[in-house]
Amino acid sequence: MWQTSQKDIALKNLRYLLFCLAGLGSASLLSQSISAQQVDQSGFRQYLSQVRGKAISQGVKPQTVDRVFASIKYNDRVVRLDRKQPEGGSNKKIPPFAPYKRRHVDAARINGGRAKYRSLRSALTRIENETGVPKQMMIAIYGHETNYGSYTGNFNAPNALASLAYEGRRRALFEGELIAVLKMIDSGVPQYAITGSWAGALGKPQFLPSVYLRLAKDGDGDGYADIWKSEVDALASIANYFVNSGWRRGQEWGFAVNVPSSLSRASVASKIKAPRCPRVFARHSEWKTVAEWKRLGIAPQRGYWPNDNMMLTLLEPDGQGKTAYLLGSNYRVILDYNCSNFYALSVGLLADAVRN
Predict the structure, then answer these.
(1) Alpha carbon of 29 to those of 8, 19, 20, 34, 40: distances in Å?
(2) Which of 70, 168, 260, 273 has CA 20 to 30 A from 322's CA?
(3) Do residues 138 and 127 make contact, with C-beta atoms less than 8 angstroms apart?
């Protein structure tokens, strides 16, 4: 209430000042802007009444919806943050990977990951044995998402998701997540658990509410999947996400390679257009076996190959003549967590560095 009243006073003072300096026309324009904001809040409340009916039809108690919605207001900041995200259009120039790698696979993150690896080794080993997801891969996701839990966001999730849903560009996604977080609250999840990123991602692994409802795991046996305060629960939940996305036990995510200048990129280009994240997958070659890549002169930087029958795809994130990567099906699982080649490569490389 204090912030709202202060904002109202500031707007009134600004309107008066503009009136004095520029005349009635400027004041009139500002009045129209204020009216637009008021209409927007009115439309927002009308939209919430529609979501209320949908949430109740999906089993959320009416009193839960009413209690949560009573304090929600349209948040323009989260909408602005969402609009800043890359749309993935073909006209956008792709930046080089190397600077991103330096920022996200740096000494601090590697050392932090190794410390977590050592302190949580017992739990990590147990989860790896149960799921097949390597210890270092769980740690790498944890480190990449929230820097090992040091920041998880300070946005009220229902407020952020309602604002993003109302804005409309991705209404189906955010409205579904809004109803999912209402289900979480209805089930007794505490207040601290509904604070997260501007996009509604929650806890140490940054799960969207619908993902929490489907895949969060109780890793420490206390009966509650607390991805906010329990590192073991968070890591078990990450592993469960990977298993659900098709992680293959004992198979590498990928590795760095050198590509000969003689390789014809056109001859290995993929002819398949991916229905999801097409710009991400458009950068991958067609799938070939290790034996086939050998015959084309590809050489692993580490000096050894996996099994000759393993299927791999080629990615050159910094262009020809730079370090390239051969990537397996488990790389696609990392992409399922966040559909970005830079993200997935950084997670894989951080995992390798933590293990070493």
Answers:
(1) 17, 10, 14, 9, 17
(2) 273
(3) yes
Q: What percent of the chain has pLDDT over 90?
A: 75
Residues with Cβ within 8 Å of residue 178, at least 6 apart in sequence: 51, 55, 158, 161, 162, 165, 200
Give the tens place of pLDDT for each residue, 246-264: 999 999 999 999 999 999 9
The string of pLDDT tens digits covering residues 296-306 is: 999 999 988 99
Delimit the domains of the chain by residue range. Answer: 15-89+153-202, 254-327
For residue 289, give the H/E element and its range. Answer: strand 288-289
Average pLDDT over residues 223-246: 97
Residue 196: strand pairing partners: 155, 202
Please give the Cα distance from 166 to 178 (Å, whole number).
11
Alpha-carbon span 259 to 35, nearest angstrom: 60
Class of the CATH domain delimited by 15-89+153-202: mainly alpha
The set of residues, in sequence order, having a beta carbon less than 8 Å from that of 228 and lying 6+ positions away, is: 152, 192, 193, 202, 203, 204
Under 8 Å CB-to-CB from 91, ≥6 apart: which residues? none
Backbone phi, psi, residue 168, to 5°: 105, -20
DSSP structure string for 115-161: HHHHHTHHHHHHHHHHH---HHHHHHHHHHHHTTTT----EEHHHHH
Q: What angle, 0 to 180 degrees and rounded to 10, lies between the N-to-C axes of helices 62-69 and 157-167?
A: 80
Secondary structure class of 201 (helix, strand, coil): coil
Contact 276, 336 (CB under 8 A): no
* Cα–Cα distance measured from residue 160 to residue 123, given in angstroms and rounded to the nearest whole number: 34
